[in-house]
Structure formats: C-alpha cells, structure tokens
Design a protein that fits this description.
mainly beta; two-stranded antiparallel sheet; elongated
Length: 66
Amino acid sequence: MTKYYTVTTPETGKDGKTRFPKVGVAFPQSEGSKSVMTIQLFATPVNGELVLFEPKADIDDGQVTE
C-alpha cells in the first residue's frame, strides 16, 4: 500500500499538452479511522480540480518525482 499520494492539478500548456504540476500531498488514514485521507495543499488550484497519483521513484538519485 502506498504511504502517500502526490496531489496535482491538470494544466493545459500552449502546446495543447496536459501537465500535472504538484500542488500537495495526500496521506491515507489508518484502518478504522473516521476519515479516509488527509490532504495538504501547497498551492490552490485555480481550476478547482485535483488529481492524485502514486509517487514514482526517480532512477538517478532515489528521490520521488512526478
């Protein structure tokens, strides 16, 4: 089970491609908790849409990247 999720928001670039910049992180709560997830936002998405991804491990230095 993933210990956290990367919170992103979709943005369409001038080239028409959709990108997902990181705007926060989400932590699943433990089994039996009244809430399902805690979400911490570093930025407020102007489009009001959030997309959660499992983090990807970077091959070069072991850091988590999107």
